[in-house]
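Before the break, one more example. Copy the sequence into your notebook; we will annotate it together after we see the structure.
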Amino acid sequence: MEKIKFYCVAGIHTDPVEMIRSNEGHHFGHHIALPLPDQINVFTVGEVTDFPDDHVVDLQFWYEGVQFKLGTVTKAVRNVVWERKKCDDTLPELLKNSCEGEVLLEGQVKQVMGNASSNRISQTYRAGKRKADNLQEELENTPQNLLTISTPISKQKPGKKKAKQSNGERTPKGPTPRKGKIATRMRALRGESRTPKKNKILEEQNAEKNDNTSEGNSLRWSVCKDVTSRVLPGPSRRWGHTMCVVDGKQAVLIGGQGDKHQLSKDSVWSLNTETRRWKPIKTEAECQNPELRMGHTATFDPMVRCIYVYGGSKNLKWFRDIYTLDLDNWKWQLMKVNGKAPTRAYHTTTLYRHELWIFGGVYPRPNPQPDGCSDELHIFSPVMENWYSPIVTGDKPLARSGHSATLIGDQLVVFGGWDAPVCYSDTFILDMTLLDWSQPKIVGKAPKPRSWHASCALSGQRVLIHGGYDGDLALDDTHIFNLRDKSWTHIKVDSLPSPRTGHVAVCLPYCHDNQEQDEVMVFGGGDNDGAFFTELLSLAIPFLPLAHTS
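Here is what the structure looks like once it is written out:
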């Protein structure tokens, strides 16, 4: 479709403007000033023979994470007219009421799939649950920078040499990677992915509360409570596990490692976030259950109601497989993938517009080399079942593992991590739409260097950081990063939990409209000195939390 040009007419009295084509040629974009005009016309110019029979172009608005579809351009239908009066009832409130700023009109090239591919994809993407928004026409194989990982297991003793293992594999006995080289800057490439949003109006209201510092809204202490059931059964003590909220009342715990460095055999649990009751889950598999592991990631996709589990480690083994856990029948399925998957543990995985974005992590090198840390970004498309590596620009972070990556709108906030023996306290932001890294100028005092901390997104474009490991000791402090003004705040917490690392934190959905705080559930972790935890903690974070002054 290289010879096809797209034009937009935004309003009755405006001239046609050619839409900008992305570098890889699969996306077209044009910014339209708000409020939206009464009519928008998108048409193509070019030979009919240059428009492939098996391609279509979806047109949609993007505004502050909200998507609204206009129509589809095909070889037969090369002109799409959108009229506001006919779509006003279905137009999102955020777009309907916005009078300032710009909205992105975007065209995304999709390839119509044949029967064989459709049948294979439908095993994971069940009919009627979604339409793929992000089909890649050309996918690159990831660089063969395979190999394995390091974990926050036992504390590393000074001067103690790493024992060699047979077959070139090593047990992750603590973070042992070395610094990697910073890759050369490359040209920008537009990315396409979407993560379902919270109620935007409610989020705006909460954001206003967070900004309101009037006398009527005084600063309040954050409060931590132990809500562990002392009667009912719960998961064994562990760290290196994952937990993700899968709907308003349920969270799913997967994997981890506990006492005597044994992987948790009671791998999968479901938590009712209202009653605080755990339920062990007995899973099934079409072929085989995934091997027990730690240092993996688990990512929930609400469009298909499944969890993607990727990577991790098990004693002498390192993983690069991807499993899906169907939440309707608790059945595992190993995904068949194209391209060379990177082997990673203690990386981060972010769901963005139906794709899994993997950054950093540890990978193994052949003996006698130490394990390596990655500074690369890899993307897996479940729709195309393919790995590829995007081209990114900007000042990207150094290689690291045990960091956090928290998605706020279209901005991915990366904090901390380490490449042994160095721990980091830097903050980087990846613009997911432009694939551009930046290191913002921080307001306030950043948290001390750490890795293996817990993090989650709060209301008001904020990121919570709790605990972690500073290379010597486990930590117990709590910090908030505000994406709006790029500030860090060390907040005061009543009944502070004991220092821990390798734990997880998830922010629960809102319960009522007049809520004045976020509730974060914290589970598990260890003190990096042989003790592991099984407490379930509830951390109440006010919109206006009281902060330490020093």
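DSSP finds four helices and 42 strands in the chain. The longest strand covers residues 102-111. Try to locate both features in your own notes.
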